[in-house]
Amino acid sequence: MTFKLSRLMLIMVLVLTACSNSQQSTESSGPDTVPVHGDTFIEASIGDASNLLPVLSSDSASSDINGLVYNGLVRYDKDLKIEGELAESWEISEDNLTITFKLRQGVKWHDGSPFTSADVLFTYQLYTDPKTPTAYAESFKQVSSAEAPDPYTFRVSYPEPYAPALISWGMAIHPKHLLEGKDVTKSRLSRAPIGTGPYMFKEWSSGEKIVLEANPEYFEGQPYIKRVVYRIIPDQSTQFLELQTVSLDFMGLSPLQFDRQTDTVAFKRLYNKYNYLNFGYSYLGYNLNRPLFQDKRVRQALTYAIDKQEIIEGVLLGYGRAATGPYKPDTWVYNTGVKQYGYNP
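^ that's the sequence the OP posted. Answer follows.
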């Protein structure tokens, strides 16, 4: 039994030169504004990051930061189609066993060193090294060979067709010149990362904030927002108080906050609210090592006894949907054929 949770967010309407400098109706037809660089975006984080080396991190707070500091070879675009990031293009062999990536030239690490295929090969070796305590090695253990025939070509082969092969190279590429021959678990990069991404690490005050600054040499162009600040505020009520004093630009809202505490003229003037299903879910799992739960009838009886819709309405105030697996409803991967166990005590 799983529940999909709605993502409830609030984003401040920044009054910048990058936006319209007068509050106009969305129906007005004035000239388009030209974005300019500057200002700071402040987001609340419920927890502090644990490690800013992607190969070692597994928490969402670290992933949020790493996603701005590092790049992969590929990524998903806004339509969930795979596009190149550090890879300019790629070719897949007719037998679907080999991918040859052509890498972007002129990309630099944040310390000014050039990015090359040697970094990609090193990253593959890092993820598959038995000494590396990573949770992400499995996809790369499927590889039969990997090589970097020249500085801007990386080739990888598999013993048999592997469906996630291409998107698996969306992993963060790590800098060989800073990590080779060193114990990654003791690397200073876990606290002060150096990537190729749109933002560069600036400051980390544990339990307080993490600050990133725009990369002026980013290969896709310098980001318009100059600085991104993640403020670590473990309590959501405290986050909301900070929001009310306009000390935050963005936070995730509880259903109660979204439904009953933000419907005022002042909030509507300063903020936009968004409500959509995210990829998070809560579920009830049965420990099949216990004899009681090895009986299918017991599991069925307990599932029938739980009113999932009442939980959604009472706890989430209706901001959620019942689901039958780890994927959210209305997506192509969601299995609508799974048997539903309705409330039947």
